[in-house]
Design a protein that fits this description.
Elements lengths: L8 E6 L3 H16 L3 E2 L8 E6 L4 H14 L14 E5 H7 L1 H6 L5 E3 L7 H11 L3 E3 L20 E5 L1 E2 L10 H5 L3 E2 L2 H13 L4 E5 L8 H4 L4 H9 L5 E5 L8 H9 L6 E3 L7 H6 L6 H14 L4 E8 L6 H14 L3 E6 L17 H23 L6 E9 L6 E5 L5 E5 L6 H4 L3 E9 L3 E7 L5
Parallel strand pairs: 1-2, 1-3, 3-4, 4-5, 5-6, 7-10, 10-11, 12-13, 13-14, 17-19
Antiparallel strand pairs: 8-9, 15-16, 15-18, 16-17, 18-19
Helix pairs in contact: 7-9, 10-12, 13-14
């Protein structure tokens, strides 16, 4: 089938994790390689693609609302189709399949997490047959990295090293929609990293649902520490990774933070709860004592490592004492950033059948108390940076003030500073600049950028 989308305009709406963002870059690459042009708004688009997440119920609600809002938006003048093409992919596409078309008849295409490559053909068939198309595969024999790609930023790249998850946390839908763990070969990963470095990429983020278990399926035991070293050897300036399951964080990976200069001193280490009772009910396979010991080891290697985490409040069975265990852990450890969530029941997961013992009011009160603590501790942890010089990789302008540049430190802190006189954001994006910090807020630093430091 010869597919040509010349004259078509498309836009992509991405929800959820970094893996979805990477998948969206592949969708962008495929459509662009077939002649289509990306636009910013639905009103301009002939093709609208939703890359979805189903980790929380709010994501479902958001998707249905946004798809419904498109229904009555007229096509642009001289559009190449008589009906706007709406495609739903990602985790909700994988989970719900044809049910999405039955519930939203104006949807043209549904595809899953394992068959992104099918999207162009499905769109073309939807035009040709004038009827909705749905294709969901249970597993994939290839990685999305085999597809064309258009990166969001020229200086940064997502690099998936594995797909799927074998952990089956009782609250999580991911293993059911992303499948079992499947690792790429180290040679394949390093080859892609070298291409990025040759292309001028300054920062690579290695991706996987649980990068710490990388290689177990291929080599019999995890080899993530080796991947970190091999990718760093390509000459990349900044190296990060996500996400990291505590039960599989090895001493070798921890030691990598002290040995590999390119590995940034920041780690997202989801704890989910500070209660051993709740951790067991979640099927997390570690205790809060084990988690605290991991943090001790990390800070022994890198005293200033910036930690972030995920926490679920109101998991079924959680008591006030369980919550206080979490509260104490957050207070003791001190996170630069915490993503806090009220438990959201996901049908098909074991926890969906667990009995909830706390009222909505009790859960909301716990959530509010935790958020207050998180903000207080994050503010305190940022204060030592006052008066310091930090090197920032410039990403663009501040969303609230276009006269300010915005970028990130090695510790992944957001930094704002006035764009130096005589310089433009276009010439600064993707380059490093030193900022002297004169204000430390809860979620960002700000200061003065030194134009002589740009590199």
């Amino acid at each position: 089938m010869h597919i040509d989308f010349t004259g078509f305009a498309f836009c992509i709406h991405t929800f959820g994790c970094q893996m979805n963002k990477h998948d969206s870059e592949r969708v962008h690459g495929m459509l662009e390689s077939l002649g289509a042009v990306q636009v910013e708004t639905v009103e301009e688009a002939d093709i609208v693609v939703f890359m979805t997440c189903c980790v929380r119920e709010a994501a479902d609600t958001r998707l249905y609302g946004q798809v419904a809002s498109i229904k009555n938006i007229p096509l642009r003048e001289n559009a190449p189709v008589s009906k706007r093409l709406i495609a739903i992919g990602g985790c909700i596409g994988q989970r719900d399949g044809e049910r999405l078309i039955k519930q939203m008849p104006h949807v043209s295409v549904v595809f899953g997490t394992h068959n992104i490559h099918s999207l162009p053909a499905l769109l073309y068939k939807a035009i040709d047959d004038s009827k909705a198309q749905c294709e969901i595969e249970d597993a994939s024999n290839s990685f999305p990295t085999d597809l064309p790609q258009r990166r969001e930023h020229a200086w940064a790249a997502w690099l998936p090293i594995m797909i799927g998850c074998n952990n089956f946390c009782t609250y999580c839908i991911v293993p059911y929609v992303r499948g079992r763990e499947k690792s790429r070969t180290i040679e394949d990963i390093v080859s892609e990293a070298k291409r990025y470095v040759d292309d001028g990429v300054k920062e690579i983020t290695l991706l996987g649902q649980n990068v710490n278990s990388y290689g177990r399926d291929l080599y019999g035991s995890p080899r993530f520490a080796e991947v970190l070293q091999r990718v760093a050897d390509t000459g990349i300036e900044r190296l990060r990774f996500a996400t990291s399951h505590p039960k599989d964080l090895t001493d070798e990976v921890i030691e990598s933070f002290g040995k590999i200069d390119a590995l940034m001193p920041a780690l997202h280490l989801p704890v989910q709860s500070g209660s051993n009772t709740i951790l067991k009910a979640m099927n997390r396979h570690y205790t809060h004592e084990h988690y605290r010991e991991l943090v001790r080891k990390l800070r022994e290697v890198v005293p200033n490592i910036a930690l972030s985490t995920d926490i679920i409040v109101g998991f079924p069975g959680e008591t006030e004492e369980d919550f206080l265990d979490t509260y104490r852990l957050v207070s003791d450890i001190g996170y630069k950033q915490v993503f806090t969530f009220i438990y959201s029941k996901r049908n098909g997961t074991p926890a969906a059948t667990y009995e909830q013992n706390a009222s909505r009011e009790e859960i909301q009160d716990r959530f509010d108390r935790l958020v207050d603590l998180v903000q207080k501790r994050a503010f305190e942890l940022n204060q030592p940076d006052f008066g310091c010089d930090v090197e920032v990789l410039v990403e663009g302008v501040s969303k609230r003030n276009p006269s300010l540049l915005s970028g990130r430190t090695p510790g992944n802190q957001t930094v704002h500073a006035p764009i130096p006189s005589g310089m433009t954001i276009d010439e600064l994006c993707g380059r490093f600049i030193t900022v002297h910090v004169d204000l430390c807020k809860t979620w960002y630093l700000s200061g003065t950028a030194d134009p002589k430091s740009v590199r």
